[in-house]
């Protein structure tokens, strides 16, 4: 985990650009689509877990006016980028398996492209469940292990060559080789839903995006 944190700190300045380029800008639309699937709540407290540079939080804020927007991430330099984007974001360096927030205190937990970087996934689910209020929502947007033909072709054939090459050109770092491997070594969306249910969540919706390149998974704490 320490090496992964160092890697994200090293690419923090160009992390957003690389994500936009490598998804052809689709990551922006995907975050927006995910936020639209969440209910409106007044005076909501939102935790963007593994929030990186804050883009998921900012997308949520465009469609709602939460009382408090927390961005939690283990990479300090990623949070420094988020701080420059919006002064309304409260930044907290944290471990997703040991969230320093009280029980039943958050209305929404967002996680964009972060769960596959967590080694103790079940612990992260447990922490997300713990901090959510009853009736709160856990929204995940991520690249899961490909199952459909289009996503298999992209991640198993095209991405292993194209993404690391683009990443090294733009950031002079091989972090995006890790990105491809993290997707291929991750669990499927169905397996992810099963883990969420085991943690106590009730599934509300699953949405495959662009032929299964990414998925939205929304769960509720009953």
Verbal overview:
It is a single chain. By secondary structure, the protein is α/β, with parallel strands linked by helices. 45% of the residues lie in helices and 22% in strands. The chain has nine helices and seven strands. The chain has a seven-stranded mixed β-sheet, sandwiched between helices. Helix 3 (26-36) crosses helix 4 and helix 7 (149-171) packs antiparallel against helix 8 (175-184). It is globular and about 45 Å long. The model has no long low-confidence stretch (mean pLDDT 90).
Features:
single chain, alpha/beta, 7 strands, globular
Please summarize what this structure is.
The protein is an alpha/beta fold and 222 residues long. Helix content is 45%, strand content 22%.
- What is the helix fraction of residues, given as a range? 40-55%
Shape: globular
Main sheet specs: 7 strands, mixed
**Could you report the average pLDDT, rounded to the nearest whole number?**
90
Topology at a glance:
Elements: H1 2-10, H2 15-22, H3 26-36, E1 45-49, H4 55-63, E2 68-73, H5 76-85, E3 89-93, E4 106-112, H6 121-131, E5 132-142, H7 149-171, H8 175-184, H9 189-198, E6 202-209, E7 214-220
Parallel strand pairs: 1-2, 1-4, 2-3, 4-5
Antiparallel strand pairs: 5-7, 6-7
